[in-house]
Amino acid sequence: MNTTANKYSEIIKAEAKRLGFLSCGISKAEFLEEEAPRLENWLNNNMHGEMRYMENYFDKRLDPTKLVPGSKSVISLLLNYYPHEFQNKDAYKISKYAYGRDYHFVIKDKLKELLSSLQDEIGDFHGRAFVDSAPVLDKAWAAKSGLGWIGKHSNLLSKKTGSFYFIAELIVDLDLEYDTPVTDHCGSCTACIDACPTQAIVEPYKVDGSKCISYFTIELKDELPSSYKDKFDDWMFGCDVCQDVCPWNRFSKPHNEPLFNPHPDLLENEKKDWEEITRETFNEIFRKSAVKRTKFEGLKRNISFLKE
């Protein structure tokens, strides 16, 4: 056993815990052999819809050493976002991950702090932080690092905490002690497949992104397709259906990150309030939220589609 690698790994995991990450796993930075044909097939079948950016950097998506030259290890981190309180029952719905401050900023700051404190403890090494917006296959790395398994809804699942968490990475040029993947515990359950309002989970472990409510309400800039009328289950931004019905999410516990707490109006608003939302109110409620991605016009479009 490489004692230095072991010692560094222990330091990294302890520091991640101190900063409030739910868990931390480490894997060797190398080509993702199993993911390559899967990603190619998914793209060839146009399951990314209008998300053309998914076609970019194909090689870098599959090989972190091409993304971060000299890298040896991928440190995967989970950050819980399961809320303490939920929206009014009579409301158009927003995905739980977007209740509070935009996670990109919250996690980026935590990763910078983690990188800086590790460099203080370990010494000089090179590393880059990634949160969702770079060509990194987050879920594949988290699964490889033993943080959970990829469920039939294609989200990462953990027996202890379900799936309501963000995934982020540090890709570093350190040799570390590597974790091993865990086994799949979906069994014969098909709750997520049965519940998906748009039948986007086309087969176990395969989601057609171009049929997903999250895709329609966030990514699609064009008009929403009339063939999906009455199938959005009142979701105006994102969708949590496949996670809400998953038995493993019985074990979700509320987060302890104040920045993820929502604006009070987000919880209290009823359908009528959302239908009458002004640009000013939108900016107030979603000032630093991920909902800004769809913009005021996008949210109004989604609400009109649900209301008609």
TrEMBL record:
GO terms of molecular function: 4 iron, 4 sulfur cluster binding; cobalamin binding; epoxyqueuosine reductase activity; metal ion binding
Protein's UniProt keywords contain tRNA processing: yes
Biochemical pathway: tRNA modification; tRNA-queuosine biosynthesis
One GO BP: tRNA queuosine(34) biosynthetic process
Binding residues for [4Fe-4S] cluster 1: C186, C189, C192, C246
Cofactor binding, per record: Binds 2 [4Fe-4S] clusters per monomer.
Keywords assigned by UniProt, alphabetized: 4Fe-4S, Cobalamin, Cobalt, Cytoplasm, Iron, Iron-sulfur, Metal-binding, Oxidoreductase, Queuosine biosynthesis, tRNA processing
UniProt-annotated binding residues for tRNA: K221
Subcellular localization, as worded in the UniProt entry: Cytoplasm
Binding of cob(II)alamin, residues: R61, D132, L156, I167, S214, C239, D240
Function text: Catalyzes the conversion of epoxyqueuosine (oQ) to queuosine (Q), which is a hypermodified base found in the wobble positions of tRNA(Asp), tRNA(Asn), tRNA(His) and tRNA(Tyr).
Subunit-structure text: Monomer.
Protein name: Epoxyqueuosine reductase
